[in-house]
Amino acid sequence: MPVYKVNIKWGKEKFSDVECNTDEPPMLFKSALYSLTGVVPERMKVMVKGATIGDDSWSNIKMLKNNMTMMMMGSASELPAEPAEKAQFIEDMTETEVNQASDYPPGIFNMGNTCYMAATLQCFRTVPELKEKLQNSKGRFSRQAMVGSEGVCAAITQLFEEMDSTSQPVMPLVMVKMLHMTIPRFAEKGEHGGFQQQDANECWTELMRMMSDFLPGEGSTTSETVRRSFIQQYFGGESATSLKCSEVEDEAATESVERWTQLRCHINTEVRYMQLGLTTGLKENIEKTSPTLGRNAVYVKTSLIKRLPSYLTINFIRFFYKEKESINAKILKDVKFPLEYDAFELCSPELKEKLTPARDQFEDLRQKKIELELSGKGLETKKPRRGEAPEKEAEKKYLPHWFEDDIGSSNSGYYELQAVLTHQGRSSSSGHYVGWVKHKENQWIKCDDDKLSIVTDEEILKLSGGGDWHVAYTLLYGPKRCEVWEEPSAAPME
Q1: From the candidates 153, 265, 347, 432, which is the catalytic residue?
Q2: What distances in angstroms separate CA 251 from CA 255, 257, 292, 294, 301, one per listed residue?
Q3: 347 in catalytic set
Q4: Which of 115, 153, 245, 265 is catalytic?
Q5: Phi-psi category of 466—alpha, beta or left, where left has phi over 0 and alpha has psi -120 to 50?
Q6: What pTM does this model have?
Q7: How far is CA 257 from the centre of its chain?
Q8: What is d(CA 101, CA 167) in angstroms, rounded to the nearest whole number?
Q9: N or C, fewer C-beta in 10 Å, the chain?
């Protein structure tokens, strides 16, 4: 079905030429009406010639045409205040501003419900070690037709190279083709012949798995960690788990080690903050066969992290299967997440002890900066004379952020948010995915397929959920790095 321009009559108000794309779920159309009227979709009723538009399908609407009038009912909630700083679109910049913004990531064209892939790759591209590893692995690609993990890694490498060489949006033809060949379910088509929407976190997990298969670990051949793949080194964590039967006190607990590339933030009625959602998953009840009782029994599974990676991925468990509608329905609950995260409380006592020296270095640096600010020393900078260019700020040096014998680990447990993957809609197989990547302090780039715009920290924190706006689905935290302290020298007198 095509795109129509329709009129919306809401009480005494009328809105003309509202775009209605029937190839998209009706919920996206209702979200557009919400932006016009302030009526949230849950309280909205839109009717066309007596038929009510649903949330997931247009099937009950028999006929649409341009300039048709739709009736909308519902009371508006208070409209959100206009942000202090409006989003600045790169298309609206002058040539000078575009040149200054040349280090922004280029957009990725949508080839028909491929936003899940584009958002995922924009998040991956914020990891410099991953880009470098892919680039250095080009010599391992065979010259014959590549398939599987090798083909996907080659396609990601080619796409990242193209994105590095231009400021214009790129067409991910090879990437989409290779993804569809390797994972056929991502190539499934809908009743209208277009590609079906896919779950972005499934795409994230599958791409991580294939890169893990192909990219070898780093380090000397004698290193313990060389047995890990590159992905396991930089994105993989390990948890010590204990499984104890709650019905038989004498049955010994089973100890094991679980490896993961994502932590799961569980969401229930009590969870309002990410930290609680993470700690909820550290202790859970499961049912399994008890050798002592000879029947199924309840076991308590407890987990504590024994290894943290440099890059910590957190997935919000926002979707659950609704058997009646046969869809993965979405939990819209508002769950706050921080721009800086400390994973210390999730760790085992042994790991906490190992993390302490690096954490002490952060505290020492903080104290020295406070002392410097209070003393006023080194705060004045030499002003350039007329015709002189200002002196460049000295490049900062940082202490290692991993353990010397464990490449790609985190030696402090401190992290900074660097990418967010969001979903807008009511089910994982519909709606729209967007990537949000950090550019510099208090400045992020919203990567909405080929459209880029600048947003602030405040707008990132609003992605926590609670409505039909973009909602955080997967977070990527990078290492918080500790500066090497250098005593400032006094500014020379004029």
Answers
A1: 432
A2: 13, 20, 7, 12, 14
A3: no
A4: 115
A5: left
A6: 0.75
A7: 26
A8: 9
A9: C
The Cβ of residue 154 has, within 10 Å, a number of other Cβ atoms equal to 21
Angle of helix 148-164 versus helix 173-182 axis, rounded to 10: 160
For 327, the token pair is 């869809």
Other beta carbons within 10 angstroms of residue 298's beta carbon come to 12
Distance (Å, rounded) from C-alpha 395 to C-alpha 287?
55
Q: Which residues contact 215 (CB under 8 A, 6 or more apart)?
A: 133, 134, 137, 153, 229, 230, 231
Burial class (CB in 10 A: 0-12, 13-18, 19+), 393: exposed
| Sign of CA pseudo-dihedral 256, 475, 478, 373 | negative
Q: Running along the chain, 494 residues long, what does each successive block of 10 average in pLDDT?
A: 84 87 78 72 83 83 87 69 56 50 82 94 97 90 74 94 92 92 90 85 96 88 60 96 91 93 93 94 90 92 96 92 70 93 97 97 92 69 52 74 95 98 84 95 95 96 89 97 79 51
Nearest to 433 by CA among 419, 447, 444: 447
Residue 115 among the catalytic residues: yes
Radius of gyration of the chain (CA): 26
